[in-house]
Amino acid sequence: MKNLKNRRKIINRQALQEALEAVLDKDLSTQKRRAEWLSLYKQALNDGYAEVKRRFMKDQDGALAVLGNAYVIDQLIRAMYHMAARHLYPSANPTKAEKLCIIAVGGYGRGELAPQSDVDLLFLHAYKLSPRVEQIVEDILYLLWDLGLKVGQSTRSLDECIRQAKSDWTICTSILEARFIWGEKALFTELQKQFRKQVMEGRENDFLEAKLHERDERHNKMGDSRYVLEPNIKDGKGGLRDLHTLYWITKFLFQVTDISELPDKGKLTQSEVEGFTKTQQFLWTLRCHLHYLTGRPEDRLTFDVQPELARLMGYTDHAGATGVERFMKHYFLIAKDVGNLTRIFCAAFEANSKRRRLLDLPKRVFRRDIEGFPVESGRLTVDDARRFEKKPVDMLRIFRASQRQNVDIHPDALQAITRKLRYLNKKIQKSPEANAVFLDILTAKEDPEVTLRHMNECGLFGRFMPDFGRVVAQMQYDMYHVYTTDEHTIRAIGILNRIENGRLASDHPVASQIIDKVLSREVLYVAVLLHDIAKGRGGDHSVLGADLARKICPRLGLTDEQSETVAWLVLHHLAMSETAFKRDLGDPKTIQDFVGLVQSPERLRLLLCLTVVDIRAVGPKVWNNWKATLLRELYYRAEDLMSGGMLEEGRDMRADALRDQLRERLSQWPQNDVDAHLSRGGTSYFLSYDLDSLVRQAELIRVAQSHGEDLTLDVLVDREKAVTELTIYAPDHPGLFSRLSGAVAVCGASIVEAKIHTFSDGMALDTFLIQDSHGAAFKHTGRASPLEETIRKVLSGEMRPLQELEKRARTGLKSRTDVFTVAPRVLIDNKASNTHTVIEVNGRDRPGLLFQLTSTLTRLGLQIGKAKISTFGEQVVDVFYVKDVFGLKIDHENKLKQIRTMMLDALKQNATSNRTGKADRRAAE
Fold it and tell me: DSSP 3-state assignment of 129?
């Protein structure tokens, strides 16, 4: 508490006790006296907390704030004990059994109390619990509870504390950081004495292993990455609990009361202790802001609080990065520093240990050295840290040896690398030997992901490759990207390695088959390494990244031809996914344009592999079978065209061939019925589906006509592609597709692709590929399913989709996408297709957006031929292939301007507001 200035302004215990004792002079009942006391306590608590908060908002010092909060509770408990022991349950000469000591444990024991944290207390007595002690404890607890505080408490004797501390590491840890508050101090002194003698002595290694195991379990539970974009700042990797773990182990092993004592013991440098203090200060400041902002014990940096926290902590927008992105980057760098501290502390713990297998290391055959590095306790190390000064390239070589031989690196060596990073200067960065070692690590058959991650966490990766260092901890403030840029890149490299080694053949069969045909593995691995290297620099990261690739690749030893291929891949690393997810793969122009860009089978193979690992590494729920299907289809169609395949045939010839095949499959039909069906659809219809789909649709139409039904619906679940195909046959009319998309939205399904066809007899056949909210095939149960029932209600006018969606938006939980801003954008392309105008719409996702967009297209008098729907976190990209009322592409400038204006208006509307006019609403409904 020595750092807490002017404490009496926070809470004056003497004045509080005088006020409490003054109540005793009043002629009040016990109940009324207690009410007045409670009022005084509450006033002191509120005033104290308010003063701590006022100071915190001024000085932004979280360490002082948590000290201040703990001090407020200390003084209240002291006053409560004083009143209970002296006035409520007085004893002129209390026996040993009647004596009580109040001890703070947990975070409160360290003198750290966040604004919304629990107050953890140990009520310590000598041996048997006496009635007086029980009454004092009960009185204090009831007062704390009545004040609205969350109290974790235990009442134990000395013997119980020691016995339980021996058998339970959690209790052991709580007593380790115990702090005397008030009462019989001799009891606290005796507890400390017995704890050191009976619990701590000789159990240092057991405690160390237990705490490290506990940390690993916690990391696994939280996702085992410090780079997730909604991190838990307390329990997540790189959070406060990791610092607490180091603090506990330090106290247990070195018998110190504070980290600051370690330099004097020769265990750490002064700068490393200052690093511990700096990281803890930042995390405490952040946690206090988070608690004050949310008004609850919240420890997750969710997207909705990140912008306000950034503002409160003074982060502003700069070129290339918003304030919230700069704030989160600082957080991730702090989390990385916690990882560095962990390695440094573990080296100190290792040196203090007499066990050979201290950190649960794997058993190995011990040898004198591996590739020139000594082996200690089964791990690579160096005899003298000055080796890295004299030959900095050995910092890379030790990681290559570790990777090749599957041997861990000793904490002493990692500590030495962290301390000697300054010797990796520009000369070493350009050294052919050093770059050859790095390229060996990157392209090794052994998993490079683990090695690169360790290099990144100790700072070596970013130091050796400064351009990569710029994206370390770089985040994008959106719901699509789950990891920081550096973590995403390292994961992508690991996925590529697993594909190459055949470990993901079932997930990525095409990539697994073609990766062995790639002419240069180095090109592919370096392209994955560099594909996002220019993020956060402002401007198009693909263009900037390609320029960087041309500078970095020669340094890594790649030839001019290889360097240019890497630069091309970086420049176009989004081309394949954008084509597959945004364009009609059944349109020959789409494939022709894509092949015109790619030009060679080698580039096609490289681009597919890069695209797969890039998407897969975005996050655990981003990749799905539908995306795999689209990429696979684009790859095969492009490969066919490159080898002179079927796309070079004329559209009419291919449509006629499909008609002939369909005629054969329908040979059991009467000839007149077959002729009538084949004459209904035009060339575009027959080219839009495979033969099996055309047969199924023909049977559907025939059944519908025989029963005279106005609406016929068919559902086919395709689990392999992770989509449900919904086919609807109904009389065509303006707004049909819009109504159907609204009905699908009301059912909670998401449309990923849609095709719309109107036959010569005025009937429409619309097909939707839909998924559930998890990216899986939408479940459909029976003919009388909610999906079919909703569609019938919408088409009959019984249900109005927009009103239903607005109602749900008002009554449901606030969408997480509401905190994001996505600039609305409408792109109109008349070159992407020979037959349609392509409208691409970008905006923030919300319930019913597709319905509003399609309603707008209907009001514009446009015919929708196909729609492709993609969602990237909070951003939606909807692409519509449209024609005018005459079945032609739209080329009139005024009409194009009207389309852009009205579609932008639809994007800007709030889903929960009622901005749509009555006339427009009727048209949409």
Answer: coil
